[in-house]
Amino acid sequence: MRRIAAALLGLLVLGLAPARADEEPRRGGELIFVVPSEPPSYDAHREETFGLIHPLAPFYSLLLRIDPTDPNGSRIVGDVAESWTESRDHLTYTFKIRRGLTFHDGQPLTARDVKASYDHIIFPAAGVASSRKGAYVAFESVTAPDDRTAVFRLRWPAAAALALLASPWNFIYSADRLRQDPRWYETHIDGTGPFVFVEHVRGSHILGKRNPRYGRPGLPYLDGFRATFVKSDSAQIAAIRGGRAMVQFRGVSPAEREQLQKALGGEVRIQESPWDCANWIAMNHDRKPFDDRRVRRALTLAIDRYEMASALSKITIVRDVAGVQVPGTEYATPPAELETLAGYGRDIARSRAEARRLLREAGVTEGFRFTLKNRGIAHPYEPVGVYLIDQWRRVGLDVSQEIIEPAAYFSTIRAGDFEVAVDFQCGYLVEPDLDLYKFQSTGVSDANYARYRDPVLDDLYRQQSRATDKAARGRAVRAFERRLVDEEAHYLMTLQWHRIIAQRRQLRGWYITPSHYVNQQLDTVWLSE
Amino acid sequence: MTTGGPAVGSVAVARTPGAGAVLGFARRHPVGAAGAAVIAAMALVAVLAPLLVPYDPLAPDYGAMLARPGPAHWLGTDAFGRDVLSRIVWGARTALSVGFAAALVGATLGAIVGVAGAYFGGLVDLLVERVVDILLSFPLIILALAVVASLGNGVGTVILAITVPMVPRCARVIRSSALAIRRAPYVDAARAAGYGHARIILRHMLPNVMAPYLIMVTAFMGQAILLEASLSFLGLGVAEPTPAWGLMLKGAAVDFAETAPWLALFPGLAISLAVLAFNLFGDSLRDALDPKLRTP
Amino acid sequence: MLRYVLKRLLLMLPTLAGVAVLVFVLMRVLPGDIVELRFAGESSFASKAALDLERGRLGLDAPLWRQFARWIGGLVRLDFGRSLWTGGPISREIALRFQLSLEVAVLATAVAVLLAVPLGLLAAVRQDTWVDYAVRLFSIAGLAVPSFWLGILLILGLLVAFGWLPPIEFTPVYVSPWRNLAQLVWPALAVGYRYSAVATRMMRSAMLEVLREDYVRTARAKGLWPRLVLWRHAVRNAMLPVFTVIVLEFAFLIGGLVVTEQVFNLNGLGLLFVESIAHRDYTLTQALVLLVAVITVLANFVADLVYVWLDPRIRYA
Known about the structure:
The structure holds 3 protein chains of 3 kinds. Chain A is of the alpha+beta class. Chain A has helices at residues 50-56, 111-122, 161-165, 175-180, 184-187, 233-241, 254-264, 293-301, 305-312, 335-338, 348-361, 381-393, 406-414, 432-436, 455-466, 470-487; strands at residues 30-35, 64-66, 76-78, 81-86, 92-97, 139-146, 149-154, 195-201, 205-210, 224-229, 247-248, 268-283, 368-375, 397-404, 420-426, 491-504, 507-508, 526-527. In chain A, a hairpin with a 5-residue loop joins strand 4 (81-86) and strand 5. Chain A is globular. Mean pLDDT of chain A is 91; it is low at 1-21. Chain C is mainly α. Chain C folds into 2 domains: 16-76, no CATH class; 98-310, MetI-like (MetI-like fold, Orthogonal Bundle). Helix content of chain C is 77%, strand content 0%. Chain C has 13 helices and no strands. Chain C is globular. Chains in contact: A-B, A-C, B-C.
């Protein structure tokens, strides 16, 4: 059996006292939290927004999940799976399903439900769209030989297999419900999670109460929860400040962190972590002069990432200088090696001189004008855009910014209607398969907006994805990174996002992770008063 | 605004304002004159911006982020360490150019449409009226969004986005004034004399709706500045790093409202002062030219 | 009179039809598409095939004329259809928010009328004195201050002065009238002030106009007690245009309070509007635009009707 090793995270936990042995979790109470976005439907297999995960994850179970008590947020443990084995050829995963789990409508959960749920995602019925199917190309079949056994067969070894089966989106649904109507879960809720759905008032809140028949004895600690939808950032902060809500689980800005600390003092606790999201700059290879590697390299060389980190971390949600993996995690490039990549050197004057030389060589004249298209989102897109424009000005480029209204943003950049655009990549787990997928050749990945074809890069992706030992995988990830951001400079990495959670003091048992998509079942969360 | 009341336009023949007229206006309408003075001062500051400001409005200073107002930065600095005063002064350029351009284009197009409707009457008028009705009952934000989203943001697009909702408003007011003129004997005389439509409209009708037209232009200028600020605040206006008042109220100004209130305070004051000046001037101008006209 | 009413009602139809066509076309001209937004937004894995499938399900791959016909066909049967974003019936999506928006509009109108009528009256009677100037400055400033800025300052001021923070959920009036009022009074004040600025100016100028009218002068010449003249004749007539302004602004308030709703965290029609556009939820946006247009057109009609009804000087053929 092979496990994804617990990653060593450069995790910063401020103000959170280490879990003391004498601190006995308390039963009872209602957790009130604000959610910045509301789910369009209830079907996690379809939707993409964390606005679905936060209020609905407590109603469901997954096959595997991220250990909610692991402060690094990387240990994969069973949820409805009691245990599992991996075959020697890495092609078969066999899961034992726990006994005694029941759906909220009283039906017992069996391996059949696991199979039906994964079939719904990987092999959807004709006419049912599954937007995550592409992540599961390695999976050949899912079977349920008996009520307590689920078997996943792979076409080739997949290093990310367990991570993919711990996806927070893959709620386990009832096989009967899905058979009757594959779309039933879009409008209804019926899971095996720690909480039972009570009501959803659209535009207002979702209410859940304790599931007395939850499969884990003694859990959940809470009597219930209330997820209130509050769109405006300042109103969310006001809610925490005024004690109307205890937390917002996505993250707050540095200014909001300070505001709450100043107003609430010891009443608020702050947890911080690098965030597995980053803004990447797409340079359109179909537009001149960005088809020229020298120009793209110049653009990345011009950026002083270290000054950027120290300046922008004070005003927006970015902090660490990083490559393709969250700093401090298993496959991340160590800082010293990172400095050898284009645009990561400590000597910014030298980098800029090199940038100017490359631009001259490529025939790009002083004062060359282009437009940076950016998404109209306050954090961290807009500050990142302002910073980059000034950096490029310093190597003689005259860049203006065009803010694209968020709704038009995807069509604009998917259609290739830009020269240079701010793009992003976000994952639910720090895992090269998830984090690097988008950067494969256009056509292989429908999310490669820079529009290049690079078979070498695709091959490196395949190598890391199918590697059966970690060292080999690490080498492939490193080579992929160097090719992507240095040699070819296809895409330009800015800074790793930085997640800040501000919670009222009485909220306990919840630990920050590098992703705002996981750790939201709330079964181990409790209130101290 | 539309009033369903009777046409209240009156015929006020525009005169070329000489020095005497200006002085007379200032004596009779001191408040309006004060407004005009503020506008003139702002325009001067906008034109001379490069000579006046202490700092490059685009240059960040990461050593002086969110600095309080003080001797080095009179109005403090923003989240990027840029000088707020310099950005406000340069922002006057954006505000005034958008205000003037949008108000002039909007009111002029509206006047032409309104006069044409009144002059031709019949089917043309009916059509004009219906289109005006449609546009007036259409939410402004969608019109603005449609323009910005399909043409991209920038000063030119913002001007267009603000112009679109102004045209029907002006057309309605001008049309009712023009209806009164249409019935005037000299228009019939001109037609009988065989003059072309264009000539009659341009030579005889337009000069006679100059009063409501000027009133609309000044009223629209304040509104255009306000709209530009709102659009920029909503992310539909001009884009960073261009200095613009509405843009300065966005993002960090809200984030740091408590710890760095100068970020929100000064640009907001600049907007209010500019709009107030235009409104005061516009009000007095209306009193002077056409006291019975009801404009928004 | 009856003919006039019928004619006006009939004229609404082409206007509303024009609005319907315009919003239908505009939404489809706008770049952005609900399916890309929803499924390709945060995921790198969504394939083009999956997106096409979803477009088909929402009926977005049908020819435009058929989509339009389907929408109008539903409207004729008073069926607004379903939101593309949530899949729920549009009537239900709107009903929830309508109550709140209506309430804010009513409260704001009350604030505006209570401010505008006495202030406008005072300014007119004391024309060109400091009272007049003060009232005019107060009202004209209301028009000059950007409402989003006023909102930011107001929230900050309330927080610093009273430690007041906006509630996160709406309390309907039938649940707790007190909590409901405590929540809505601030936005009503912020909006009402601006709204009163328009009405005060109208009240003042209408009053001035009436005071110059012959019948008022005659009444004065006949030696009627000045205050009686003022109340019996002048105020009643001056109220006409003020009423018009109030009705039209009221129509705008329902659905037009985008920024105020954001600042005060109110889940009203304005916010729903912004969201529906941000999601490119064609059906919901179309329904909302049409709703706003109907309210505006009706408000115009009511304002005109009252004019005709009350003002003896106007006669329509």
